[in-house]
Amino acid sequence: MTTVQDVERSAVTGETVLEATGVTMRFGGLLAVNDVNLSVRQGEIVGLIGPNGAGKTTFFNCLTGLYKPTSGQVRFAPSPQQKVRPPYRRAWINGKRARILIEEEPDAAESAGLTPPVPSSLAPLPPKPRAVVRAGMARTFQNIRLFANMTALENVMVGRYCRTSSGALTSVLRGPKFRWEEAATRKRAQELLDFVGLGRSTEHLARNMPYGDQRRLEIARALATDPKLILLDEPTAGMNPQETRQASDLIFKIRDSGLAVVVIEHDMRFIFNLCDRVLCLVQGEALIEGTPDEVQSDPRVIEAYIGTGEDDEDERSQDDVPGEVQP
Ligand SMILES: Nc1ncnc2c1ncn2[C@@H]1O[C@H](COP(=O)(O)OP(=O)(O)OP(=O)(O)O)[C@@H](O)[C@H]1O
């Protein structure tokens, strides 16, 4: 039988940290994501590409618990900090309310139409986005969502608060525990600003920072939650080539620190130079998943991009279309 401790111990280097199986998301009559699978291992960078409207962000939202998929499962290896519930479900069996430990009685669980057993290292995604963050998954969004009138340091400190434990009363009274946690939060936030290359911008207001710095600040704030997996939605959108190179270096650095990274991007040169594996979605379905070489040489991928409409072909930059990528 799998114990809570087993689940907590499972997160070791190279193990699967996220597994999405048969994820499907419908918006009324629109099938935005259809039966997509993805698994991500610790220490790897996985790219998610596809033409506009392919379902990338919707799939991201399912992975991070913002959307509950219409069907399919997302499972995650929780951080030790997360309290993991034993994998049981309540169900009616032979007219009686029963509590079934799924790992122990897979047949009974299956006959009651319940979730099949989960691998010992993974647990179902917690139901609320906040709990998903506490479990060890962080993300950034397509559009910058900083607190514009707060300093860089304060923005990162906000991200840290999901790991602090001072209650409302302690915070109001500013007791010793609160002051100790505040100092530790400040110290960690400064370390993260140094890590992303913003160590000298600590006191700058977010709204006054250059665009590329704001993007890095968002990543620092996401890292402040102590994730084991970070998901970045178009981290280089609107960046100039120098900022894009710096973003790429930062993502390598994050990966080298032991995290798993999933990135959505339209910039093909960036994605093929960065990722260990790439999943291409087209019209909500997985077209191909493979190494950057396999994906960029697949004629279906090129067709999916070129074939999205001749009218807007002129508007697309060369980087938006897959092809041979030079390192
Ligand atoms: N909340 C929603 N309600 C209804 N339809 C939605 C919703 N979110 C997304 N869609 C639709 O689902 C499809 C996939 O959208 P999604 O934003 O996931 O694509 P994407 O690949 O991220 O696109 P882009 O690269 O342009 O950001 C689109 O047809 C979109 O209009």
UniProtKB/TrEMBL annotation:
CDD domains recorded: ABC_Mj1267_LivG_branched
InterPro entries (UniProt xref): AAA+_ATPase (IPR003593), ABC_AA/LPS_Transport (IPR051120), ABC_transporter-like_ATP-bd (IPR003439), BCA_ABC_TP_C (IPR032823), P-loop_NTPase (IPR027417)
Gene3D superfamilies hit by this protein: P-loop containing nucleotide triphosphate hydrolases
Ribonucleoprotein keyword on record: no
Region described as Disordered: 306-327
All copies of domain ABC transporter, residue ranges: 18-308
UniProt cross-references to SUPFAM superfamilies, sorted A to Z: P-loop containing nucleoside triphosphate hydrolases
Record bears the keyword Transmembrane: no
PROSITE patterns: ABC_TRANSPORTER_2
UniProt-recorded Gene Ontology molecular function terms: ATP binding
Keywords of this entry: ATP-binding, Nucleotide-binding, Transport
PANTHER family: AMINO ACID ABC TRANSPORTER ATP-BINDING PROTEIN, CONSERVED COMPONENT OF ABC TRANSPORTER FOR NATURAL AMINO ACIDS-RELATED
Protein name in UniProt: Branched-chain amino acid transport system ATP-binding protein
Species for this entry: Kribbella aluminosa
